[in-house]
Amino acid sequence: MTRSSRRGCALIGVLATAVLLTAGCTTTVDGSAAADSSPVPAEGPGSDPAAWADRVCGAVLSFAVPATSAPDFSRTSDLPAVQRTVSSYLETVVRGAQQGQTRLAEAGRAPEPGGDEAARRARDALGKLEKDLGGAKTTVDAMNPDDPAAFMATLAQVESKVSAVTPPNPLGDLTAAPRLFRAAEGAAQCRRLSALATGAPR
Question: Residues of the signal sequence (predicted)?
Fold first, then answer.
């Protein structure tokens, strides 16, 4: 065998080995890759932070929407009508605070611990609003339209009390949980709540 023949045989051997190795590396397995079948939790760690934030902000909107829709009765001198209007407004806001507390309880555990604390604070704030505004409604219902001076004095006190109420601020409380805060900034209900915040009673 000539030297060139020996080199040719050696080259063929190397190529054959390479083919075998390549074939071994590309061996296929029947079937397809299985996707992770574990469902995303509805609440708690691993759940969607944007969905959770949307639920919390939606709960607070139950109060914020009626609270920022106060009637304008400044152009009427009909005191019984003013009394009915203010009483109805306060009743609607109190009911909104109650509904908000219920919805917060149903929002579920937050994806991160800081969110649970924010939801608790919002729920406590709505509970205080329910009590304070419920008391204001009782005062309004007891006013006597036949005594205009006393009526207007009491109404002014009620307005002052309502304007001093501090509304829930779940977005502000979420700053301690940056991931949830970023999710809340993009959540539709939270954006709506932010737009209403400046009009809520203070």
Answer: 1-23
Residues 6+ apart with CB under 8 A from 100: 59, 60, 61, 62, 63, 122, 123, 126, 168
Helix 79-106 with 113-141: angle, nearest 10 deg: 160
Cα torsion 152, 156, 157, 163 to 10°: value is 160
User: Quick one: how far is CA 25 from the chain centroid?
Assistant: 51
All residues at 6 or more sequence positions from 154 whose CB lies less than 8 Å from its CB, including other chains: 139, 140, 143
Longest dimension (CA), the chain: 130
What's the CA gap between 60 and 93, in Å, rounded?
Answer: 11
Q: How many CA atoms lie within 13 A of 135 on its CB side?
A: 10
Per-residue burial over 114-144, b = 16 or more CB atoms within 10 Å of its CB, e = otherwise:
bbbebbeebbebbeebbebbbebbebbeebe
Q: CB within 8 A of 114, min separation 6: which ones?
A: 174, 176, 177, 180
pLDDT tens for the chain, 202 residues long, are 544 444 444 433 433 333 333 334 334 444 444 444 566 666 667 689 999 999 999 999 999 999 888 887 777 789 999 999 999 999 999 999 999 999 999 999 999 888 999 999 999 999 999 999 999 999 999 999 999 999 999 999 998 888 877 778 888 888 888 889 999 999 999 999 988 875 554 4
